[in-house]
Design brief:
Distance between the termini: 25 Å
Helix content: 25-40%
Number of domains: 2
Shape: elongated
Order of helices and strands: HHEEEHHHEHEEHEEHHHH
Bound molecules: zinc ion
CATH architecture of the largest domain: 2-Layer Sandwich
Radius of gyration: 22 Å
């Protein structure tokens, strides 16, 4: 959707609120009155668009009850336009860009982006079945040496002498793509008891919470994956040095997600702290997972709490 279509679809704050009600409450049917508990017995008046009037007990309550919009003073159209911008730029947008686009303070813009990322993080996926690809990548932080060279390199290339950042002090991110669903789940690796950021134990734990046992995992030859078949999975390794891109045993899908993530993080978010990296990763995963969805807006709105 381009900017013109956006403003055609949402010309007024009322239009935004009506859209919100449609998505959130399936047209008022699911609105629950917090005063008397009756369901779907509400009226919505155009002259008081931010409240529902309960037809059972006559009390009123916020249309945005239990969401971040309930206490937000920011024009709802600004929220929606921010979501629109995030959904329509492959690389995402920065707080500075949003600040300029919707005329709010940087602090407000930054907070809005964070909230939208949190909403995008609430997408729930069923456990992956059949074939999934797993891989790790390294983002952010300062490379240990040869800063310039490292920056110019695409360190995702399997031919790179540096084993794709293993051994640098960048932050590891683990990702799994399911082939059939074409969906990705990615997780920032945290320090474990030994102070290691990435261990076989973490990889296995992530596989278990993402993939159903008995299904198939494709990975590269990183030794961290050595135990995968001992945990109830069929495991095939791709030898990047010799068989890259040959046959169906490859990890091209997850690698193409890494490419998008890294272009975004290098290009737009120059300094992502480890603390917020998971939210950025979720944002990219959400866009990637729902790139063909016709109801992207609705999906984000449903994710707001
Ligand atoms: Zn009521």
């Amino acid at each position: 959707m381009d900017a013109f279509s956006f403003f055609e679809k949402f010309p007024t704050e009322l239009s935004v609120i009506e859209y919100f009600i449609k998505v959130r409450y399936t047209d008022k049917k699911e609105a629950v009155c917090p005063h008397c508990g009756s369901v779907g017995r509400t009226s919505h008046r155009k002259d008081m668009p931010r409240v529902f009037q309960c037809n059972s007990c006559n009390n009123s309550f916020s249309v945005f009850k239990d969401t971040i919009f309930e206490k937000s003073d920011t024009d709802l159209r600004k929220w929606f336009y921010a979501i629109h911008l995030m959904l329509n730029s492959k690389k995402g947008i920065s707080g500075y860009q949003l600040q300029r686009e919707i005329k709010v303070t940087y602090k407000t813009a930054w907070r809005m982006l964070k909230k939208i990322r949190e909403a995008m993080s609430n997408e729930e996926l069923a456990l992956f079945q059949e074939i999934s690809e797993i891989d790790e990548t390294y983002v952010g932080g300062k490379p240990r040496k040869q800063a310039k060279k490292d920056r110019d390199d695409d360190d995702d290339m399997p031919s790179s002498g540096n084993k794709r950042g293993r051994g640098t002090n960048k932050t590891p991110v683990i990702g799994i793509v399911n082939r059939a669903l074409n969906k990705v789940v990615a997780k920032v690796a945290e320090l474990n008891e030994q102070g290691q950021k990435l261990s076989g134990k973490q990889l296995i734990a992530f596989i278990k919470e993402t993939v159903e046992s008995d299904s198939t995992i494709y990975s590269d030859e990183f030794k961290g994956y050595n135990q995968v078949s001992k945990h109830g999975y069929k495991h095939e390794k791709v030898d990047h040095a010799r068989e890259f891109a040959y046959g169906s045993v490859h990890t091209n899908s997850i690698e193409s997600f890494w490419a998008v993530l890294k272009r975004g993080i290098v290009g737009i978010y120059h300094h992502v702290s480890t603390k917020y990296l998971q939210l950025y990763v979720n944002e990219f995963a959400f866009r990637w997972n729902n790139r063909d969805s016709e109801n992207l807006f609705g999906l984000v709105i449903s994710g707001f709490y």
